Amino acid sequence: MMVLTLAQREIRSLFYSPLAWAILAVTQFILAYLFLAQLQEFIRLQPQLRVLEQAPGLTDVVIVPMYSSAAFILMMVVPLLTMRLVSEERRSRSLTLLFSAPISMTEIIIGKFLGIVAFLLIITGMMTLMPLSLSVAGSLDYGLLTAVVIGLILMIAAFASVGLYMSTLTIQPTVAAVSTFGILLLLWIIDWAGTKVADENASGALTYLSMLRHFESLTRGVFNSSDIMYYLLFITTFIVLSIRRLDADRLQR
Amino acid sequence: MNDAKLITVEHLSRNFGPIQAVSGVDFELKRGEVLGFLGPNGAGKSTTMQMITGNLAPSMGQIQICGVDLLDQPKQAKAEIGYLPEQPPVYRDFTVDEYLDFCARINRMPRDKISKAVDQAKQRCGLTEVSNRLIGNLSKGYQQRVGIAQAIIHSPAIVVLDEPTVGLDPIQIREIRSLIRELSAEHGVILSTHILPEVQMTCDRVQIINKGKLVFSDEVANLDERMRATTLLIELVNPPAESELEQLAGISKVENIGNQQYRLHHAQGENPAEEIAKQAVNANWGLRALTPERKSLEQIFVEITSAEQAHHETEEAAA
Prior knowledge:
The complex is a heterodimer of chains A (253) and B (319).
Chain A lengths: L1 H15 L1 H34 L6 H25 L4 H5 L3 H6 L4 H29 L8 H28 L3 H24 L3 H10 L1 H9 L5 H24 L5
Chain B lengths: L4 E12 L2 E12 L3 E5 L6 H8 L7 E6 L2 E2 L4 H5 L2 E4 L11 H11 L4 H14 L15 H13 L5 E5 L7 H14 L4 E6 L2 H7 L2 E6 L2 E7 H8 E9 L5 H5 L4 E6 L4 E6 L6 H10 L4 E8 L2 H22 L1
Protein backbone atom coordinates (compact mmCIF):
# COMPACT_ATOMS: atom_id res chain seq x y z
CA MET A 1 0.00 0.00 0.00
CA MET A 2 2.47 2.56 1.24
CA VAL A 3 5.03 1.26 -1.23
CA LEU A 4 2.59 1.90 -4.08
CA THR A 5 1.93 5.47 -2.90
CA LEU A 6 5.66 6.13 -2.91
CA ALA A 7 6.09 4.48 -6.31
CA GLN A 8 3.26 6.55 -7.70
CA ARG A 9 4.87 9.75 -6.49
CA GLU A 10 8.14 8.72 -8.08
CA ILE A 11 6.50 8.20 -11.47
CA ARG A 12 4.63 11.47 -11.17
CA SER A 13 7.84 13.32 -10.42
CA LEU A 14 9.50 11.67 -13.41
CA PHE A 15 6.77 12.73 -15.79
CA TYR A 16 6.72 16.28 -14.41
CA SER A 17 10.29 16.67 -15.55
CA PRO A 18 11.08 16.83 -19.25
CA LEU A 19 13.77 14.19 -18.73
CA ALA A 20 11.35 11.26 -18.76
CA TRP A 21 9.67 12.42 -21.95
CA ALA A 22 12.99 13.04 -23.65
CA ILE A 23 14.22 9.60 -22.68
CA LEU A 24 11.05 7.92 -23.92
CA ALA A 25 11.23 9.78 -27.22
CA VAL A 26 14.91 9.23 -27.87
CA THR A 27 14.98 5.52 -27.01
CA GLN A 28 11.84 4.91 -29.00
CA PHE A 29 13.30 6.70 -32.00
CA ILE A 30 16.60 4.83 -31.94
CA LEU A 31 14.95 1.46 -31.40
CA ALA A 32 12.49 2.12 -34.20
CA TYR A 33 15.41 2.85 -36.50
CA LEU A 34 17.15 -0.37 -35.47
CA PHE A 35 13.91 -2.30 -35.85
CA LEU A 36 13.35 -1.03 -39.38
CA ALA A 37 16.96 -1.65 -40.39
CA GLN A 38 16.72 -5.20 -39.05
CA LEU A 39 13.41 -5.75 -40.81
CA GLN A 40 14.87 -4.65 -44.12
CA GLU A 41 17.74 -7.05 -43.62
CA PHE A 42 15.26 -9.86 -43.06
CA ILE A 43 13.34 -9.02 -46.23
CA ARG A 44 16.60 -8.99 -48.19
CA LEU A 45 17.66 -12.34 -46.76
CA GLN A 46 14.27 -13.99 -47.06
CA PRO A 47 14.86 -15.80 -50.43
CA GLN A 48 18.09 -17.33 -49.11
CA LEU A 49 16.55 -18.31 -45.78
CA ARG A 50 13.76 -20.16 -47.50
CA VAL A 51 16.29 -22.64 -48.88
CA LEU A 52 17.72 -23.52 -45.48
CA GLU A 53 16.29 -26.43 -43.58
CA GLN A 54 16.30 -25.00 -40.06
CA ALA A 55 16.09 -21.38 -41.05
CA PRO A 56 16.02 -18.68 -38.37
CA GLY A 57 12.60 -17.08 -38.32
CA LEU A 58 11.34 -13.54 -38.13
CA THR A 59 11.73 -13.42 -34.37
CA ASP A 60 15.35 -14.57 -34.48
CA VAL A 61 16.44 -12.18 -37.17
CA VAL A 62 14.49 -9.05 -36.34
CA ILE A 63 13.35 -9.09 -32.76
CA VAL A 64 16.16 -10.64 -30.75
CA PRO A 65 18.87 -8.29 -32.08
CA MET A 66 16.59 -5.36 -31.35
CA TYR A 67 16.26 -6.39 -27.71
CA SER A 68 19.99 -6.91 -27.39
CA SER A 69 20.59 -3.38 -28.66
CA ALA A 70 17.85 -2.12 -26.37
CA ALA A 71 19.63 -3.62 -23.37
CA PHE A 72 22.80 -1.80 -24.35
CA ILE A 73 21.02 1.51 -24.94
CA LEU A 74 19.16 1.24 -21.64
CA MET A 75 22.43 0.64 -19.85
CA MET A 76 23.23 4.24 -20.73
CA VAL A 77 19.72 5.55 -20.10
CA VAL A 78 18.88 3.96 -16.74
CA PRO A 79 21.62 5.82 -14.81
CA LEU A 80 20.03 9.08 -15.96
CA LEU A 81 16.68 7.98 -14.60
CA THR A 82 17.93 6.65 -11.29
CA MET A 83 20.46 9.33 -10.47
CA ARG A 84 17.92 11.62 -8.83
CA LEU A 85 16.06 9.02 -6.80
CA VAL A 86 17.63 9.72 -3.43
CA SER A 87 20.36 12.27 -4.08
CA GLU A 88 17.92 14.89 -5.31
CA GLU A 89 15.68 14.42 -2.30
CA ARG A 90 18.65 14.65 -0.05
CA ARG A 91 19.78 17.82 -1.77
CA SER A 92 16.39 19.52 -1.55
CA ARG A 93 15.95 18.25 2.02
CA SER A 94 12.65 16.62 1.16
CA LEU A 95 13.98 13.30 2.44
CA THR A 96 13.06 14.59 5.91
CA LEU A 97 9.41 14.33 4.90
CA LEU A 98 9.77 10.59 4.34
CA PHE A 99 11.94 10.06 7.41
CA SER A 100 9.43 11.76 9.74
CA ALA A 101 6.44 9.93 8.29
CA PRO A 102 5.43 6.57 9.74
CA ILE A 103 7.12 4.57 7.00
CA SER A 104 10.16 2.36 7.16
CA MET A 105 13.37 2.71 5.19
CA THR A 106 12.53 -0.54 3.44
CA GLU A 107 9.24 0.92 2.22
CA ILE A 108 10.96 4.08 1.01
CA ILE A 109 13.57 2.19 -0.99
CA ILE A 110 11.21 -0.42 -2.42
CA GLY A 111 8.72 2.31 -3.29
CA LYS A 112 11.35 4.22 -5.21
CA PHE A 113 12.58 1.07 -6.92
CA LEU A 114 9.09 0.05 -8.01
CA GLY A 115 8.46 3.56 -9.30
CA ILE A 116 11.48 3.42 -11.55
CA VAL A 117 10.72 -0.15 -12.63
CA ALA A 118 7.20 0.94 -13.60
CA PHE A 119 8.71 3.59 -15.82
CA LEU A 120 11.08 1.03 -17.35
CA LEU A 121 8.06 -1.20 -17.99
CA ILE A 122 6.53 1.65 -19.96
CA ILE A 123 9.69 1.87 -22.09
CA THR A 124 9.67 -1.91 -22.59
CA GLY A 125 5.97 -1.88 -23.42
CA MET A 126 6.36 0.83 -26.04
CA MET A 127 9.28 -1.06 -27.53
CA THR A 128 7.39 -4.36 -27.63
CA LEU A 129 4.61 -2.77 -29.68
CA MET A 130 6.97 -2.78 -32.66
CA PRO A 131 7.55 -6.56 -32.87
CA LEU A 132 3.88 -7.15 -32.09
CA SER A 133 2.94 -5.08 -35.14
CA LEU A 134 4.64 -7.78 -37.24
CA SER A 135 2.11 -10.36 -36.09
CA VAL A 136 -0.36 -8.75 -38.49
CA ALA A 137 1.69 -9.92 -41.49
CA GLY A 138 3.80 -12.84 -40.27
CA SER A 139 3.92 -15.41 -37.55
CA LEU A 140 5.96 -14.74 -34.43
CA ASP A 141 7.64 -17.12 -32.02
CA TYR A 142 5.77 -15.90 -28.94
CA GLY A 143 7.75 -18.14 -26.60
CA LEU A 144 11.02 -16.59 -27.68
CA LEU A 145 9.52 -13.11 -27.59
CA THR A 146 8.34 -13.64 -24.02
CA ALA A 147 11.77 -14.92 -23.01
CA VAL A 148 13.60 -11.87 -24.38
CA VAL A 149 11.07 -9.46 -22.89
CA ILE A 150 11.42 -11.08 -19.47
CA GLY A 151 15.19 -11.08 -19.88
CA LEU A 152 15.23 -7.41 -20.77
CA ILE A 153 12.96 -6.44 -17.89
CA LEU A 154 15.11 -8.34 -15.38
CA MET A 155 18.24 -6.84 -16.81
CA ILE A 156 17.04 -3.23 -16.66
CA ALA A 157 15.54 -3.77 -13.21
CA ALA A 158 19.03 -4.88 -12.19
CA PHE A 159 20.45 -1.71 -13.76
CA ALA A 160 17.93 0.31 -11.76
CA SER A 161 18.89 -1.36 -8.48
CA VAL A 162 22.53 -0.37 -9.00
CA GLY A 163 21.44 3.15 -9.88
CA LEU A 164 19.31 3.38 -6.79
CA TYR A 165 22.17 2.30 -4.58
CA MET A 166 24.56 4.76 -6.17
CA SER A 167 21.99 7.50 -5.66
CA THR A 168 21.83 6.79 -1.94
CA LEU A 169 25.59 7.24 -1.67
CA THR A 170 25.85 10.80 -2.86
CA ILE A 171 24.17 14.17 -2.83
CA GLN A 172 25.18 14.91 -6.45
CA PRO A 173 22.91 13.31 -9.06
CA THR A 174 25.60 13.47 -11.74
CA VAL A 175 28.07 11.59 -9.56
CA ALA A 176 25.43 8.91 -9.06
CA ALA A 177 24.83 8.69 -12.81
CA VAL A 178 28.51 8.42 -13.72
CA SER A 179 29.30 5.82 -11.10
CA THR A 180 26.23 3.77 -11.99
CA PHE A 181 27.25 3.79 -15.63
CA GLY A 182 30.78 2.78 -14.67
CA ILE A 183 29.61 -0.21 -12.66
CA LEU A 184 27.13 -1.33 -15.29
CA LEU A 185 29.69 -1.13 -18.06
CA LEU A 186 32.18 -3.06 -15.98
CA LEU A 187 29.65 -5.80 -15.26
CA TRP A 188 28.75 -5.85 -18.94
CA ILE A 189 32.28 -6.42 -20.18
CA ILE A 190 33.68 -8.35 -17.24
CA ASP A 191 33.48 -11.66 -19.13
CA TRP A 192 35.83 -10.34 -21.83
CA ALA A 193 38.54 -10.64 -19.26
CA GLY A 194 36.92 -13.88 -18.09
CA THR A 195 37.59 -15.65 -21.35
CA LYS A 196 41.24 -14.54 -21.37
CA VAL A 197 42.15 -15.55 -17.83
CA ALA A 198 43.99 -18.84 -17.85
CA ASP A 199 42.70 -20.05 -14.46
CA GLU A 200 39.51 -22.05 -14.97
CA ASN A 201 37.85 -21.09 -11.69
CA ALA A 202 38.58 -17.40 -11.97
CA SER A 203 37.31 -17.18 -15.52
CA GLY A 204 34.19 -19.06 -14.50
CA ALA A 205 33.48 -16.61 -11.71
CA LEU A 206 34.03 -13.60 -13.93
CA THR A 207 31.79 -15.04 -16.63
CA TYR A 208 29.13 -15.73 -14.05
CA LEU A 209 29.23 -12.11 -12.89
CA SER A 210 28.67 -10.74 -16.37
CA MET A 211 25.15 -9.46 -16.82
CA LEU A 212 25.29 -10.00 -20.55
CA ARG A 213 25.91 -13.76 -20.28
CA HIS A 214 22.71 -14.36 -18.40
CA PHE A 215 20.77 -12.32 -20.90
CA GLU A 216 22.24 -14.19 -23.87
CA SER A 217 20.77 -17.54 -22.94
CA LEU A 218 17.34 -15.94 -22.72
CA THR A 219 17.80 -14.49 -26.20
CA ARG A 220 18.28 -18.04 -27.45
CA GLY A 221 14.96 -18.87 -25.87
CA VAL A 222 16.53 -20.85 -23.04
CA PHE A 223 14.62 -20.04 -19.87
CA ASN A 224 17.14 -21.16 -17.27
CA SER A 225 16.14 -20.61 -13.64
CA SER A 226 19.76 -19.98 -12.65
CA ASP A 227 19.79 -16.92 -14.91
CA ILE A 228 16.57 -15.65 -13.38
CA MET A 229 18.05 -16.23 -9.92
CA TYR A 230 21.15 -14.29 -10.90
CA TYR A 231 19.07 -11.21 -11.64
CA LEU A 232 16.84 -11.59 -8.60
CA LEU A 233 19.85 -11.98 -6.30
CA PHE A 234 21.52 -9.05 -7.96
CA ILE A 235 18.48 -6.81 -7.44
CA THR A 236 17.96 -7.96 -3.83
CA THR A 237 21.60 -7.31 -2.99
CA PHE A 238 21.53 -3.73 -4.17
CA ILE A 239 18.15 -3.02 -2.60
CA VAL A 240 19.37 -4.29 0.77
CA LEU A 241 22.51 -2.20 0.41
CA SER A 242 20.39 0.87 -0.37
CA ILE A 243 18.18 0.33 2.66
CA ARG A 244 21.21 -0.01 4.87
CA ARG A 245 22.81 3.08 3.41
CA LEU A 246 19.67 5.16 3.92
CA ASP A 247 19.33 3.91 7.46
CA ALA A 248 22.92 4.96 8.12
CA ASP A 249 21.84 8.58 7.57
CA ARG A 250 20.14 8.46 10.94
CA LEU A 251 22.81 6.61 12.81
CA GLN A 252 26.04 7.51 14.43
CA ARG A 253 28.81 8.54 12.12
CA MET B 1 -2.76 8.84 29.66
CA ASN B 2 -3.87 11.17 26.89
CA ASP B 3 -3.80 14.42 28.75
CA ALA B 4 -0.54 13.50 30.43
CA LYS B 5 2.85 13.65 28.78
CA LEU B 6 3.10 13.71 25.02
CA ILE B 7 6.85 13.58 24.95
CA THR B 8 9.25 12.33 27.55
CA VAL B 9 12.91 12.71 26.73
CA GLU B 10 15.59 11.32 28.99
CA HIS B 11 19.35 11.83 28.87
CA LEU B 12 19.31 12.55 25.18
CA SER B 13 22.77 12.81 23.62
CA ARG B 14 24.14 12.87 20.16
CA ASN B 15 27.70 13.06 18.87
CA PHE B 16 28.91 13.91 15.42
CA GLY B 17 32.33 12.36 15.48
CA PRO B 18 34.21 14.09 18.29
CA ILE B 19 31.67 16.92 18.50
CA GLN B 20 28.99 16.54 21.12
CA ALA B 21 26.01 18.32 19.59
CA VAL B 22 23.54 17.44 22.32
CA SER B 23 24.39 16.05 25.71
CA GLY B 24 22.11 14.82 28.45
CA VAL B 25 18.95 16.71 27.60
CA ASP B 26 15.79 15.83 29.56
CA PHE B 27 12.38 17.38 29.10
CA GLU B 28 8.68 16.74 28.84
CA LEU B 29 5.82 18.12 26.83
CA LYS B 30 2.22 18.11 27.97
CA ARG B 31 -0.90 18.37 25.89
CA GLY B 32 -1.98 21.94 25.18
CA GLU B 33 1.45 23.31 25.82
CA VAL B 34 3.73 25.34 23.57
CA LEU B 35 7.36 24.71 24.37
CA GLY B 36 9.95 27.09 23.00
CA PHE B 37 13.53 26.03 22.32
CA LEU B 38 15.84 28.95 22.49
CA GLY B 39 19.52 29.03 21.84
CA PRO B 40 22.32 30.57 19.84
CA ASN B 41 23.23 29.15 16.45
CA GLY B 42 24.72 25.69 16.66
CA ALA B 43 23.43 25.15 20.19
CA GLY B 44 21.80 21.83 19.32
CA LYS B 45 18.18 22.92 18.86
CA SER B 46 17.78 21.41 15.43
CA THR B 47 19.66 18.26 16.36
CA THR B 48 17.33 17.73 19.31
CA MET B 49 14.32 18.22 17.10
CA GLN B 50 15.67 15.84 14.49
CA MET B 51 16.05 13.21 17.17
CA ILE B 52 12.52 13.68 18.51
CA THR B 53 11.13 13.30 15.01
CA GLY B 54 13.15 10.20 14.20
CA ASN B 55 15.41 11.81 11.62
CA LEU B 56 18.50 11.17 13.68
CA ALA B 57 19.16 8.31 16.02
CA PRO B 58 20.37 9.48 19.44
CA SER B 59 23.76 8.29 20.64
CA MET B 60 22.26 7.83 24.07
CA GLY B 61 18.98 8.36 25.82
CA GLN B 62 15.31 7.62 25.43
CA ILE B 63 12.45 9.28 23.62
CA GLN B 64 8.85 8.38 24.35
CA ILE B 65 6.11 9.75 22.16
CA CYS B 66 2.66 9.37 23.73
CA GLY B 67 4.03 6.51 25.78
CA VAL B 68 5.52 4.71 22.76
CA ASP B 69 9.27 4.35 22.48
CA LEU B 70 10.42 6.08 19.31
CA LEU B 71 13.36 3.76 18.80
CA ASP B 72 11.51 0.50 19.42
CA GLN B 73 8.30 1.26 17.55
CA PRO B 74 9.13 4.08 15.17
CA LYS B 75 6.00 3.71 13.06
CA GLN B 76 3.50 4.15 15.87
CA ALA B 77 5.51 6.95 17.40
CA LYS B 78 6.06 8.85 14.16
CA ALA B 79 2.34 8.76 13.35
CA GLU B 80 1.84 11.13 16.30
CA ILE B 81 4.36 13.69 15.10
CA GLY B 82 4.22 16.44 12.51
CA TYR B 83 7.57 18.01 11.73
CA LEU B 84 8.58 21.13 9.89
CA PRO B 85 12.36 21.17 9.48
CA GLU B 86 14.39 24.31 8.92
CA GLN B 87 13.87 24.02 5.19
CA PRO B 88 10.33 23.04 4.27
CA PRO B 89 10.55 19.54 2.77
CA VAL B 90 8.49 20.24 -0.33
CA TYR B 91 8.47 18.78 -3.82
CA ARG B 92 8.88 21.83 -6.00
CA ASP B 93 7.28 20.34 -9.09
CA PHE B 94 4.07 19.35 -7.30
CA THR B 95 1.07 21.59 -6.81
CA VAL B 96 0.01 22.39 -3.26
CA ASP B 97 -2.96 20.03 -3.52
CA GLU B 98 -0.94 17.12 -4.90
CA TYR B 99 1.75 17.60 -2.32
CA LEU B 100 -0.61 17.73 0.66
CA ASP B 101 -2.50 14.72 -0.69
CA PHE B 102 0.76 12.78 -0.79
CA CYS B 103 1.67 13.91 2.74
CA ALA B 104 -1.69 12.73 4.04
CA ARG B 105 -1.18 9.35 2.38
CA ILE B 106 2.28 8.69 3.70
CA ASN B 107 0.96 9.48 7.15
CA ARG B 108 -1.44 6.57 6.66
CA MET B 109 -4.65 8.56 6.72
CA PRO B 110 -7.73 6.69 5.57
CA ARG B 111 -8.59 7.53 1.93
CA ASP B 112 -12.01 8.99 2.63
CA LYS B 113 -10.66 11.51 5.11
CA ILE B 114 -7.82 12.79 2.99
CA SER B 115 -9.57 15.44 0.91
CA LYS B 116 -11.22 16.91 3.96
CA ALA B 117 -7.91 17.00 5.83
CA VAL B 118 -6.22 18.69 2.86
CA ASP B 119 -8.91 21.36 2.72
CA GLN B 120 -8.69 21.97 6.42
CA ALA B 121 -4.91 22.26 6.44
CA LYS B 122 -5.01 24.65 3.49
CA GLN B 123 -7.59 26.77 5.21
CA ARG B 124 -5.67 26.94 8.44
CA CYS B 125 -2.47 27.96 6.75
CA GLY B 126 -4.10 30.36 4.28
CA LEU B 127 -3.23 28.30 1.22
CA THR B 128 -6.67 27.95 -0.35
CA GLU B 129 -6.01 30.44 -3.16
CA VAL B 130 -2.77 28.77 -4.21
CA SER B 131 -4.13 25.19 -4.27
CA ASN B 132 -3.26 24.63 -7.91
CA ARG B 133 0.03 26.47 -8.08
CA LEU B 134 3.34 24.69 -8.27
CA ILE B 135 5.14 24.84 -4.96
CA GLY B 136 8.39 25.83 -6.69
CA ASN B 137 6.70 28.99 -7.99
CA LEU B 138 5.43 30.10 -4.60
CA SER B 139 7.24 32.68 -2.48
CA LYS B 140 9.34 31.64 0.48
CA GLY B 141 6.57 32.61 2.89
CA TYR B 142 4.03 30.45 1.12
CA GLN B 143 6.46 27.54 0.92
CA GLN B 144 6.91 27.86 4.65
CA ARG B 145 3.15 27.71 5.08
CA VAL B 146 3.00 24.63 2.90
CA GLY B 147 5.59 23.16 5.22
CA ILE B 148 3.42 23.91 8.24
CA ALA B 149 0.33 22.52 6.50
CA GLN B 150 2.28 19.33 5.87
CA ALA B 151 3.14 19.08 9.56
CA ILE B 152 -0.44 19.40 10.78
CA ILE B 153 -2.32 17.57 8.04
CA HIS B 154 -2.72 14.29 9.91
CA SER B 155 -3.59 16.14 13.15
CA PRO B 156 -0.70 14.65 15.09
CA ALA B 157 -0.56 14.91 18.86
CA ILE B 158 2.74 16.75 18.62
CA VAL B 159 3.76 19.43 16.15
CA VAL B 160 7.47 20.17 15.96
CA LEU B 161 8.38 23.39 14.17
CA ASP B 162 11.98 24.36 13.55
CA GLU B 163 12.17 28.14 13.20
CA PRO B 164 8.71 28.45 11.67
CA THR B 165 8.72 32.21 11.12
CA VAL B 166 12.03 32.53 9.30
CA GLY B 167 11.67 34.31 5.98
CA LEU B 168 8.14 35.51 6.55
CA ASP B 169 6.91 39.10 6.41
CA PRO B 170 5.60 40.74 9.62
CA ILE B 171 1.96 40.08 8.78
CA GLN B 172 2.62 36.43 8.00
CA ILE B 173 4.62 36.14 11.20
CA ARG B 174 1.64 37.34 13.17
CA GLU B 175 -0.61 34.90 11.35
CA ILE B 176 1.73 32.01 11.99
CA ARG B 177 2.02 32.92 15.66
CA SER B 178 -1.72 32.97 16.08
CA LEU B 179 -1.86 29.67 14.18
CA ILE B 180 0.60 28.20 16.67
CA ARG B 181 -1.54 29.39 19.57
CA GLU B 182 -4.53 27.87 17.87
CA LEU B 183 -2.73 24.57 17.36
CA SER B 184 -1.84 24.38 21.01
CA ALA B 185 -5.53 23.93 21.80
CA GLU B 186 -5.47 20.34 20.49
CA HIS B 187 -1.81 19.55 19.98
CA GLY B 188 1.38 19.91 21.92
CA VAL B 189 3.75 22.20 20.08
CA ILE B 190 7.52 22.44 20.20
CA LEU B 191 9.09 25.30 18.34
CA SER B 192 12.63 26.48 18.08
CA THR B 193 13.64 30.04 17.44
CA HIS B 194 16.26 32.58 18.13
CA ILE B 195 13.75 35.41 18.03
CA LEU B 196 13.19 36.09 21.71
CA PRO B 197 9.91 38.06 21.61
CA GLU B 198 8.45 35.16 19.70
CA VAL B 199 8.94 32.97 22.71
CA GLN B 200 7.25 35.51 24.97
CA MET B 201 4.34 35.80 22.61
CA THR B 202 3.69 32.20 21.72
CA CYS B 203 5.16 29.87 24.30
CA ASP B 204 3.97 28.62 27.67
CA ARG B 205 7.32 27.24 28.62
CA VAL B 206 10.81 28.03 27.44
CA GLN B 207 13.98 25.98 27.40
CA ILE B 208 17.30 27.51 26.64
CA ILE B 209 19.88 25.25 25.07
CA ASN B 210 23.50 26.23 24.90
CA LYS B 211 26.33 24.06 23.64
CA GLY B 212 24.12 21.00 23.64
CA LYS B 213 23.03 21.38 27.25
CA LEU B 214 19.75 22.48 28.70
CA VAL B 215 20.73 25.52 30.75
CA PHE B 216 17.33 26.93 31.59
CA SER B 217 13.80 25.62 31.66
CA ASP B 218 10.87 27.51 33.09
CA GLU B 219 7.38 28.81 32.49
CA VAL B 220 7.24 31.98 30.44
CA ALA B 221 5.23 33.56 33.28
CA ASN B 222 8.17 33.03 35.62
CA LEU B 223 10.44 34.41 33.02
CA ASP B 224 8.43 37.64 33.17
CA GLU B 225 9.16 37.73 36.89
CA ARG B 226 12.82 37.39 36.18
CA MET B 227 12.62 40.14 33.64
CA ARG B 228 11.43 42.69 36.15
CA ALA B 229 14.60 44.66 36.33
CA THR B 230 16.10 46.64 39.15
CA THR B 231 16.44 49.94 37.36
CA LEU B 232 14.37 53.06 36.85
CA LEU B 233 14.85 55.49 34.03
CA ILE B 234 14.19 59.13 34.86
CA GLU B 235 14.38 62.33 32.83
CA LEU B 236 14.79 65.63 34.66
CA VAL B 237 14.74 69.17 33.25
CA ASN B 238 16.70 70.63 36.20
CA PRO B 239 18.75 67.71 37.41
CA PRO B 240 20.50 68.03 40.76
CA ALA B 241 24.00 66.77 41.34
CA GLU B 242 24.39 63.01 40.89
CA SER B 243 25.44 62.64 44.51
CA GLU B 244 22.09 64.06 45.53
CA LEU B 245 20.29 61.44 43.48
CA GLU B 246 22.43 58.74 45.00
CA GLN B 247 21.27 59.73 48.47
CA LEU B 248 17.63 59.00 47.64
CA ALA B 249 16.14 56.19 49.70
CA GLY B 250 16.63 52.77 48.16
CA ILE B 251 18.96 53.85 45.35
CA SER B 252 22.22 51.99 45.16
CA LYS B 253 23.76 53.43 42.03
CA VAL B 254 23.20 56.25 39.54
CA GLU B 255 24.22 56.27 35.90
CA ASN B 256 24.18 59.42 33.84
CA ILE B 257 23.20 58.40 30.33
CA GLY B 258 23.06 61.92 28.86
CA ASN B 259 20.14 63.98 27.57
CA GLN B 260 19.19 64.72 31.16
CA GLN B 261 18.41 61.05 31.65
CA TYR B 262 19.57 58.95 34.53
CA ARG B 263 19.36 55.28 35.29
CA LEU B 264 18.79 54.52 38.95
CA HIS B 265 19.60 51.06 40.27
CA HIS B 266 17.68 49.74 43.23
CA ALA B 267 17.38 46.48 45.09
CA GLN B 268 15.29 43.59 43.78
CA GLY B 269 11.72 43.60 45.02
CA GLU B 270 11.67 47.25 46.02
CA ASN B 271 10.20 50.04 44.01
CA PRO B 272 11.33 53.50 45.04
CA ALA B 273 9.49 55.20 42.16
CA GLU B 274 6.89 56.79 44.36
CA GLU B 275 9.49 58.34 46.67
CA ILE B 276 11.48 59.66 43.77
CA ALA B 277 8.44 61.30 42.21
CA LYS B 278 7.60 63.03 45.48
CA GLN B 279 11.17 64.21 45.92
CA ALA B 280 11.39 65.45 42.34
CA VAL B 281 8.27 67.54 42.70
CA ASN B 282 9.34 68.95 46.06
CA ALA B 283 12.79 69.88 44.86
CA ASN B 284 11.49 71.16 41.53
CA TRP B 285 13.73 68.93 39.38
CA GLY B 286 11.25 69.09 36.53
CA LEU B 287 10.40 65.42 36.29
CA ARG B 288 9.54 64.52 32.73
CA ALA B 289 9.67 60.75 32.69
CA LEU B 290 9.92 57.98 35.22
CA THR B 291 9.91 54.47 33.79
CA PRO B 292 10.61 51.17 35.48
CA GLU B 293 12.88 49.35 33.08
CA ARG B 294 12.41 45.72 32.16
CA LYS B 295 15.22 43.42 31.29
CA SER B 296 14.75 42.17 27.81
CA LEU B 297 14.75 38.47 27.18
CA GLU B 298 17.98 39.13 25.32
CA GLN B 299 19.66 40.22 28.51
CA ILE B 300 18.42 37.21 30.43
CA PHE B 301 19.48 35.02 27.62
CA VAL B 302 22.95 36.50 27.53
CA GLU B 303 23.15 36.30 31.33
CA ILE B 304 22.23 32.66 31.37
CA THR B 305 24.40 31.57 28.48
CA SER B 306 27.43 33.58 29.57
CA ALA B 307 27.07 32.54 33.21
CA GLU B 308 27.08 28.95 32.02
CA GLN B 309 30.17 29.60 30.01
CA ALA B 310 31.98 31.28 32.90
CA HIS B 311 31.06 28.35 35.11
CA HIS B 312 32.40 26.00 32.50
CA GLU B 313 35.65 27.91 32.21
CA THR B 314 36.30 27.95 35.95
CA GLU B 315 35.61 24.25 36.00
CA GLU B 316 38.14 23.73 33.27
CA ALA B 317 40.68 25.92 34.98
CA ALA B 318 40.23 23.91 38.17
CA ALA B 319 40.79 20.68 36.27
